[in-house]
Model the fold of this input.
Amino acid sequence: MTETRTTVTVTVNGRAVAAAPGELLIDVAERAGTYIPRFCYHPRMEPVGVCRMCLVEVEGPRGATLQPACYQHVNDGMVVTTDSPKVKKAQEGVLEFLLANHPLDCPVCDKGGECPLQDQALTHGPGETRFVEEKRHFVKPIEIGPLVLLDRERCIQCARCTRFAAEVAGDTEIAFAGRGDQIEVAPSPEHPFTSVFSGNTVQICPVGALTATPYRFAARPWDLEQVESTCTQCAVGCRLAVQSSGNRLTRVLGVDSDPVNHGWLCDKGRFTLDAIDGHEGSRDPLDPSSRITSPLVRRDGTLVEATWGEALARAAELLGAARAHDGGVGVIGGAALTNESAYAWARVAREVLGTEHVDAQYGDGLDARRVLALPGATIDDACAARVVVTLCGDPREELPVLFLRLRGALARRGHDLVELAVGPSALHPLATVSIPVRPGEAHRVIDALADEGRAPADLALDEDARARARELLGDGEGVVVVAGRTNLAEDPAVVERALTRLAEALPRARFLVASRRGNVRGAIDAGLAPGLRPGRVLGAGGRDTLAQLAALREGAQRAVLVLGDLLGNVLDRAGAAAALERADVVAVTGHGGATLAHADVVLPAAVQHERTGTVTNLEGRVTAVVPKIVAPGAAWPDVAIAAELARALGAELAMDSVEDAARAYEVSTGYPALTVLLDATSEGRLAGSASAPAPRRPLDPMAFPGIRSAAWVGLGESAGDVAESAPPLAVPPLAAPALADLGPAPSPEVPGRDAYGLALRVAPRLYDHGVAVAGSPALAALVGPTEARLHPGDLDRLGLDTGGRLLVRGAGRTLELTVARDAQVPRGVLEVAFGALGDGGEDVNALADPDAVITQVKVEAR
Amino acid sequence: MAVLDAPRIVTSRLAYEDSHTLARYLATGGYAALRKALSLHPEQVAAEVDQASLLGRGGAGFPAGRKWSMLRPSEVAYLVVNGDESEPATFKDHLLVERDPHQLVEGVIIAAYALQVNRAFIYLRGEFALGLERVQAAVNEAYDHGALGRNVFGSGFSLDVVVHPGAGAYICGEETALLEGLEGKRGFPRIKPPFFPAAQGLYGEPTVVNNVETMSNLPWIVLNGGAAFAALGAGRSTGTRLFALAGRVNRPGVYEVEMVKNTFRDLIYDPAFGGGVPGDRPVKAFIPGGVSAPWFGPDQLDLPLGQDEVGAQGSMLGSGSVVVLDDTSCAVRAAWRITKFFSRESCGQCTPCREGSGWIERAMYRLEHGGGRVEDLDLLLDLCDNIAPGLTWPPQQTTICVLGPSIPSSVHAAIEMFKDEFLAHVETQGCPFD
Done:
């Protein structure tokens, strides 16, 4: 009998330590309480052993030799000494070498006070320098990308940034150049460092070599206070440390959450701070870069400032009048709110306004009931899956850190990607099988994958790819489907039908629904969706957003309560504007936007980093959001606005605080709102999962500098230190709708393909025209050019190449657009970015026919 | 007296102008060894090499036969020839690639056959323009001749050889950096363990990396037998070796010398070799095995040219480069120049080598050119110790690869042997030899 060894014993400084075979010595020693200094080592990247700071003595066949602890996989019987004079001399020697060419910039360096080099020079350095030579000089600093500056004099060549770019993000825009002590990190001569993950290199830089333009010289770490919170820019729910100096947001750093973001953030989540505290923004309430700081009421056609009492009274008057009519009022929006706010508004809608017409999505998502009914998968499940299937937009544009997680998983052997390629995707290079899917075809492609026999000829499926995909998918065991809205100019019924069919054909597969908006999953769970009640309970149907807009245009609905910026987020802006123009509109929002042109009452709300509560990410994980700054002016948290509006309408929600709302939500539905709220620094809980949350990883301050250095305030203490858990509440089990409860998904009627036209795909991009980007000068400059992307075959047919001009006619409008060649766009498809503006300032969304299942456009080369 | 009766093993064709051509090679017995090898079982060929005790000629002196036997069994394995000779005063492979490229190619084919690998790479220093041209021509001729490609000489064995030029970095002579370079990456050495080439080499597959001269010995060994090779020299140091003799000698150049039977004195003074020091000046010191080797003084001139004999005295035969300093040579300048080379050629990957080499070079520059301080001597020794702890031989290292511990050798030796000269530099704030 052979026994598989599950633990080995390592001797560290004479003490026996148990470890898993193959664990890194540096981690094993740290767990046993022996800290080994390090610079290049980062627990979220492969070790390289280059800085040599972690040299320790390891016994070997030739006696004890100095070995880098970050590069040693432990084995049974390993004997290690970390505190001998030889080790101390080697470590001090390395530190002295590192400081030899390092400039004495500390007094003017942003990293000063939170610098691993400073910290470890103090703990493991020789104390004084013997270096009397001239130090190395470089021009400082150089701009290597739009958000990142590089001071090569400060660089210690740890390769964290270059490894992050190449290994984690898959960007090769920065790399080493030169050699010896003239070696430098250099940007690619052709491509600036435009990675959407560039800020991570700044965060993990162990010296002040990389600095981010928005934070440069903005603060000193000892002046900063911070809270641990969750990003709500998209539905990944990255954990972060939000730091401010006084009431001004200065910086956001990624916190290493094992199930979610591993410490990484995208640049949008990291750098959108100006949009929140609005100090650079405009004062015009129609401008998305402005903050709404006072209640506004329309008088004589103009929005004017009002008191809360006046504004609430007017809002109650309008909504109260409308609720008297059957179907007279509805609620649109709310995907950017906390769970508690969404719950409060869901109750206001049902109990106070008496309406089922509620929808947090702007017609840009999938049927909420079907999303909840699919067998769910977590991000970790997707990363562990044997086969990942993608039927979604480019995850790097829509859910950036999900892309990082999937990329890391799929780059390993034994993990395959079956890509249902609706358009360009940063995951495409990792696909084992890539099957082009044109608008209106997803459900038929799934049929062809599921069924025996010949595939319909018009799908132009590659038979080899189909066979390979079928083989990989099997019965769905080990398969996770990452599914989302693939095309905003396509009836969601196409993807809904495809997913339902996929769930039938692969009974063992699980689904990670990649809905993109911040807390859209939490809003749905809380009942801000037609046909759903708070706590994932199926209820009577109501109008979704598009149906409400139609009803408003037709006069069947009189008033609407808008939670957020409807016009900035809806595909058919003209149709929505016409609807709002006819309606009584009460808008609850923290940011300005075009919606407010039609608002009768505007109630100013607190936004991200100003509010308490919980949010739910795309996998159903509930984590806490914690306020760091006070909302400007008279803005209130949504829960308070909901409660006061209810009172003004003569109802009592009994929610005087967020905690009240969380308690009511949890006690009545089993949704873990209060549990998480009271345990704000935990990894959160999967709603509906009985299993206890995993213990947190301890924070490695050398890996994530800047987090230990700022003072923790507010709910909970530091990331990496586990807070006392609240006693469990007596709650009912959370509801779990199943596909079987919903009946078959309706089959969309897709018109025949127009041989002379192209099918339109409209897809969101990370740097869009939304509030987060428009309000942040650093990000606003990153919005890409407006272009129509076409397959090279289609461009050749038109006699055009990248940069050429194309007349595009769709939905009765004609736009002239610049074209770009993109082999990842399926043949027969024309792709534009959601919300992009044509050369004449026209809205490219207008090319889409809002009433059609798919939009076909006619094109003509100029 | 020098022992000169050994056969010329790798330099037998150098008398011919056209020694690099296939015609001359065939006329002088070329590719006969390959035909013989192909008639033997691959293991028999390897056994001959093992019996020959052919020590690797690249610097480390590891027995080629043992290196071959350590190759991890695998479906795919590679043979890589290290021809990146770029150390100052080391130029013996340079001669072989330019003057007898077919001998190298035949050696490569024999080795590949013995190892049963079907793909070999000859990595040549990029500055060897003529060598690259001639080795590539020899490879092309070998293909035409049937000695390379599918079914070599009808034996059923197939081999492809790729000649790859280096891009101008000394570090790519370090075998793992060379493999990185072959893979198209920056020449950063890999960490051993786990990246011993025999286990995880080129593209992660087991790989044998051998030196040009090592390969060039193989045709003779196959033709004459491992025992005949082992009969030359003594102990583990068998056969002949090329020595690149440089510095203060009357006849600098490359000499093929039977190992152990001859001494450094023979190499430097015998008329067949160096022919003595110009002006009959006394030898002050000599570098026995390339600029990364610790120096020897005149009392070690009678040491035999044997690997273990030199090793026991605290240095190495290394790359076969012998550099002579006489009493007009400045030890400080010599050590500074060597350090400058290593400082420029450090790959920059790991801290002690990157920063240490530059620091030591700058301190040595000050000592040589004025600005030296007495305390610089202790400082230099301590910096050396921080790269090669204990300053032992063979060295320990805080660095990833052996370029690091190559830096202290000359500085340490110069300070130990010529401390007075250093103090004179400090005293005069300049070089007394100027």
In short: Chain B touches chain A at residues 169, 171, 186, 191, 343-352, 354-359, 362-363, 366, 379, 383, 385-387, 389, 396-400 (CB under 8 Å). Chain B has a mean pLDDT of 97. The first helix of chain B runs from residue 22 to 27.
